[in-house]
């Protein structure tokens, strides 16, 4: 039988270990605390089409820094070489379309081994190239971000700044490789460009709306695959909020 400690000493030892563990983990725990957010109701734009933010607080929606390019890298290890080339072309076209229809700019840095997960956003600086946003086509079991319903998911990580405004610092698009060929190369209905742009709008903090003219219908199959008036108004509102401070 192993040697046991008297009860008071055992408690003291357990507390010592617990406090030491908290001391080691505290910086990581505090780094992951995000500001309380709400999901706002849809806003009706001047065109009569709605847009909606994913997350916001009393100061406004979560936004990316104003007038700063957003760096993007891709993980395409699950694809064959022909599919890689096709997808990279569609990703480039999607980012150009977003640039042409908003004030946001993107830099496509190349391929990465990074796999976005629920905790990845706090470790993205460790990867090369150092890209804030990773677009990954990976098996569903490779990431805890993958959902049972839907072929892809996009979003961002954010923290409050000194004024309490929510600022995005990393983002992700995860496309399940099992569902990759549900979509066709190029643009339009049920295309890779439509899928990428839809998820990148989530990265920028726009949410689903009930509007067939929008690219952000909850089911992409219900959209014609192109940016709609509400999407454009939402992008303008996000950028205005980011630059207002």
E-strand count: 9
- Give the overall pLDDT as a whole number: 87
CATH architecture of the largest domain: 3-Layer(aba) Sandwich
Q: What coarse outline follows from CA principal-axis ratios?
A: globular
- CATH hierarchy class name of the largest domain: Alpha Beta
Q: Which percent range describes the beta-strand content?
A: 15-25%
Measured distance between first and last alpha carbons: 67 Å
Write down the Rg: 21 Å
Topology of helices and strands:
Elements: H1 7-31, E1 43-44, E2 50-51, E3 56-57, E4 60-61, E5 70-75, H2 81-100, E6 106-111, E7 133-138, E8 152-160, E9 166-176, H3 192-203, H4 229-243
Parallel strand pairs: 5-6, 5-7, 7-9
Antiparallel strand pairs: 1-2, 3-4, 8-9
Helix pairs in contact: 2-3
What are the main properties of this structure?
single chain; 245 residues; alpha/beta; Collagenase (Catalytic Domain); 5-stranded mixed β-sheet; 4 helices; 9 strands; 29% helix; globular; disordered N terminus
């Amino acid at each position: 039988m192993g040697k046991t400690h008297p009860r008071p000493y055992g408690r003291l030892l357990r507390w010592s270990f617990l406090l030491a563990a908290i001391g080691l983990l505290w910086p990581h725990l505090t780094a992951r605390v995000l500001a309380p957010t709400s999901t706002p109701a849809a806003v009706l734009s001047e065109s009569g089409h709605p847009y909606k933010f994913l997350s916001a607080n009393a100061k406004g929606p979560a936004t990316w820094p104003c007038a700063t390019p957003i760096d993007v890298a891709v993980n395409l290890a699950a694809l064959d070489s022909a599919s890689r080339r096709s997808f990279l072309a569609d990703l480039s076209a999607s980012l150009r379309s977003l640039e042409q229809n908003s004030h946001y700019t993107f830099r496509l840095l190349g391929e990465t081994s990074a796999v976005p997960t629920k905790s990845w956003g706090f470790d993205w600086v460790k990867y090369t190239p150092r890209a804030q946003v990773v677009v990954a086509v990976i098996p569903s079991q490779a990431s805890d971000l993958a959902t049972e319903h839907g072929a892809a998911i996009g979003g961002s990580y954010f923290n409050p700044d000194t004024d309490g405004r929510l600022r995005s610092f990393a983002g992700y698009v995860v496309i399940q490789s099992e569902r990759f060929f549900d979509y066709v190369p190029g643009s339009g209905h049920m295309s890779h460009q439509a899928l990428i742009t839809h998820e990148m709008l989530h990265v920028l903090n726009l949410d689903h709306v009930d509007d067939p003219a929008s690219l952000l219908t909850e089911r992409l199959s219900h959209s014609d695959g192109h940016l709609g008036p509400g999407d454009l108004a939402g992008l303008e509102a996000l950028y205005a909020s980011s630059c207002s401070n």
